[in-house]
Amino acid sequence: MASNDIRKEYSNKEITVVWKPGKCIHAGICVQSLPNVYDPNGKPWIQPENASAEALIKQIDQCPSGALSYYKN
């Protein structure tokens, strides 16, 4: 699998956040808008249980690179 094909998934009960690191341009909009969900120093760095599905969807829709996407569980 090429590095730009890697995808990681992070779920809460309602939604699964999909992150494709090969597409990420590190604009930081995710960290700025939901710092209790996105922590670049955390393990895991995305913790979707720390926000509502609505807040996650609103933030993901603002991702400039398309590295973040989601699907409903």
Give an account of the 3D structure:
- With 73 residues, this protein is an alpha+beta fold.
- The protein is built from two helices and three strands.
- It has a three-stranded antiparallel sheet with strand order 1-2-3, covered by helices on one side.
- A hairpin with a 3-residue loop joins β1 (8-11) and β2 (15-19).
- The termini are far apart.
Question: Brief description of this entry?
Answer:
The chain is α+β, with helices and mostly antiparallel strands and about 70 residues long. The chain has helices spanning about 30-35, 55-60, and strands at about 10, 15-20, 70. A hairpin with a 3-residue loop joins strand 1 (about 10) and strand 2.
What is the chain-wise order of helices and strands? EEHHE
Structural class by sheet pairing and helices: alpha+beta
The radius of gyration is 11 Å
Average pLDDT rating: 94
Percent of residues in helices comes to 10-25%
Q: DSSP strand (E) fraction?
A: 15-25%
Query: What is the overall number of helices?
Result: 2
Report the count of strand segments: 3
- So what's the overall shape? globular
End-to-end separation in angstroms reads 26 Å
Strand arrangement within the widest β-sheet reads 1-2-3
Biggest sheet architecture: 3 strands, antiparallel
Extract low-pLDDT stretches.
none
Throw out a few tags for this protein:
alpha+beta, 18% helix, single chain, 2 helices, 73 residues, 3-stranded antiparallel beta sheet
